[in-house]
Amino acid sequence: MPVYREDFTVESHRSKEVLLITQEVASILRKSGMQEGICLVYTPHTTAAIAINEAADPDVLDDMILGFNRLSPSLIQYSHKEGNSPAHLLSSLIGPSEAIPIKDGKLDLGLWQGIYFCEFDGPRVRKVAVQVLG
Amino acid sequence: MPVYREDFTVESHRSKEVLLITQEVASILRKSGMQEGICLVYTPHTTAAIAINEAADPDVLDDMILGFNRLSPSLIQYSHKEGNSPAHLLSSLIGPSEAIPIKDGKLDLGLWQGIYFCEFDGPRVRKVAVQVLG
Amino acid sequence: MPVYREDFTVESHRSKEVLLITQEVASILRKSGMQEGICLVYTPHTTAAIAINEAADPDVLDDMILGFNRLSPSLIQYSHKEGNSPAHLLSSLIGPSEAIPIKDGKLDLGLWQGIYFCEFDGPRVRKVAVQVLG
């Protein structure tokens, strides 16, 4: 099975931030030359995640961050001394990867879908791995 | 690597609904003829998701919808004008895809597991893509 | 495409528990001999999940369980007679699988990442399937 792998970095500027990375992933897929298969987008961090959501109205992203804060608030009962337990919880809720079907050499995303890097404990420079199986 | 791809549609009748799609996916896998590999079930929508859960007692599905409503309520602070921000949040919490191992030409689901299309902003006609890598 | 498959069991001792399984998965990957590809870790249960999170400070795991309980509490309105609806909901929130890139014959996890089996309705003996595509 042909496998193509390439990584890139993203830089967040706020403590919680949702960054569109569709173009970066699409560009790596093009370089891979794969026509059919699966594209795995994976982040090796434990206070971040990869999500797929609407890429049209930026208000959706603000509302997602509002929802994230509500789902995983800072709680006085947390034990972890670094204080970023809400970020660890969100990382497992959203998950470190998304698998996207490849069709005719392209990411077969829906019309409104974009791929997002979700920062839960920024600002930081983060890594994203793209593994293409075709 | 052999790749087989086929799509189908599902129709929801309520604003939130959990629809069993195991048979549709199993039927596409049979047509693919693949014996081992991974079956990726992917929905290209941003207010829907794919989940795996119990397919025995329908009460579990009602309870999941109760849980979904509790996790992502309508909040007055949301900015997105369409009013479906709770559906976008749930879409990223549950995720747009599930990857299921294939064994002896069959979906290797657990005894109680079924594959579900989760509608968070219905009623609508929706698309599900099945990508089989074998 | 070469596919290697092997299962193992984990035993939980509490109602909610997060168990590190990185070594079990890495050992199966080594036996597979695959150098590049994807490793799918899948649990066939509907009241459990697979997650990736920090494997350094055990406090993070306690905090995750605190977060899980907060996200999916026992609610009087649940219909399912077994009483484990919170466990079913958490199973779909975290999800039954994780896909991890393989690089140079190894799980390409981040420095702090470990693979976890999440028990939401224990104690029980549970099954984990590892499907390697390389």
Describe this structure in words.
The structure is a homotrimer of 134-residue chains. Chain A has 134 residues and is of the alpha+beta class. The first copy, chain A, has a single domain (16-133), classed as Sandwich (Jelly Rolls). Chain A has helices at 22-32, 59-71, 85-94, and strands at residues 3-11, 17-20, 37-42, 48-54, 97-103, 106-107, 113-119, 125-133. In chain A, the strands form 2 sheets. A 5-stranded antiparallel sheet of chain A has the order 1-8-3-5-6, covered by helices on one side. Chains A and B meet through β4, α2 and β5 of A and β3, α3 and β8 of B.
Most extensive protein-chain contact, per-chain counts: A-B, 35 and 34 residues
Principal-axis shape of chain A equals elongated
- Approximately how much beta-strand content do the residues of chain A carry? 35-45%
Total helix count of chain A? Answer: 3
Number of distinct beta strands of chain A? 8
Secondary structure category of chain A: alpha+beta
Uncertain stretches of chain A: none
Mean pLDDT of chain A: 96
Major pleated sheet of chain A: 5 strands, antiparallel
Oligomerization status of the protein chains:
homotrimer
| Count of separate structural domains of chain A | 1
What is the radius of gyration of chain A computed over CA atoms, rounded to a whole number of angstroms? 16 Å
Proportion of residues in helical segments of chain A? 25-40%
